[in-house]
Amino acid sequence: MVDLKSQYENIKGEIDAAIHEVIDSTAFINGPSVQQFQKDMEAYLGVKHVIPCANGTDALQVSMMALGLKPGDEVITTSFTFIATAEVIALLGLTPVVVDVDPDTFNIDPLAIERAITSRTKAIVPVHLFGQCADMDAIMDIAKKHNLYVIEDACQAIGADYIFKDGTTKKAGTIAQIGCTSFFPSKNLGCYGDGGAIFTNDDELAKQLRVVVNHGMTVRYYHDYIGVNSRLDSIQAAILKVKLQYLDDYASKRNKAAAYYDKAFENHPTLKTPVHFPQSTHVFHQYTLVLDGVDRAGLIAHLGTKNVPAMIYYPVPLHMQKAYLDPRYKEGDFPVTEHLCKNVISLPMHTELDEEQLELITSSILEFVNR
Ligand SMILES: Cc1ncc(COP(=O)(O)O)c(C=O)c1O
Fold first, then answer.
1. What value does the mean pLDDT take over residues 155-159?
2. Residues 22 and 233: beta-carbon distance below 8 Å
3. Is residue 52 within 8 Å of 197, Cβ to Cβ?
4. Mean pLDDT across the stretch 124-133?
5. Which helix (H) or strand (E) holds 64?
6. Quick check: CB of 56 below 6 Å from ligand 1?
7. Among 112, 173, 291, 306, which residue's CB has the most CB atoms within a 10 Å radius?
8. Ligand 1 probe mutation, 53, 81, 82, most atoms within 8 A of CB
């Protein structure tokens, strides 16, 4: 699905030098590369504070801790996402409230958010799924009206631009009080291990986020809060500092591959190509088709015979996951998500896809669906 080896080989000199510099310095934790990457990322995003941490899951958990959310508080999120989004809500003893998504963008449906708000609702966690932003105009309006926090899960959309209805733009993850991202290797900005970051423009919140990621420590060995240990290590920061320079180029390569797929499947009666939400650019973390009446397992098996990988993101809606079964929800409650889980398929998507590979992938799919 991704080709990290070719991507590394194209920037090997810079990456190897950056890693060696950290090893030479032996400043493995909180070394200068962490502060340098943080500054570069703040400039790239146009945000006041970037707080590096150990992974995207921690970024979400730390955000909820720093906001002071308490057991019993309800947090509204999408039924169609990677489990981490809901996991941290449950781990903190908060109550996940799940809502359905828009069938075109796969992102959380603002009308469904509004219907799910109760007196206990404290926060909304929209996920910018597969690389394009959720409807942040509507979500921020709802949050303002009901006095709720918004934490953007931008783990899949780093670098995407949100275009507000008034024409102004902001980077994904910098629109709400807090944004979170993951630097998992296969992410659009991936390191060579685990990594993550939190974004905010709020000085006080930034202070609290830095306290929470560092054992709740305000003054060395004085712990005023219960925190966690969540650090981005210096080697990962050095790698990310190099790769950040290529992020926009990587996004345009992903868009080029997506355009090839779009054209190959244009107006196909059984393949629905990704719908572009006009309020967001797309950074194509995933290129996901919705199948109509196609035997998905058969298609994946057919692609396997041609050495073409394909993945299902995600096969099970949040409310149907065994660990998250809840008497509040049953099968049929979130029909859009349930339909997507049964019919989506994601194709190889990365920065090194060449025309020969794209031709093999698209012709193999068309061969199966046109049978
Ligand atoms: C939408 C979403 N949220 C959260 C995460 C968690 O990130 P991480 O794997 O770095 O913990 C991921 C990625 O894995 C993700 O795709």
1. 98
2. no
3. yes
4. 98
5. helix 56-66
6. yes
7. 173
8. 82
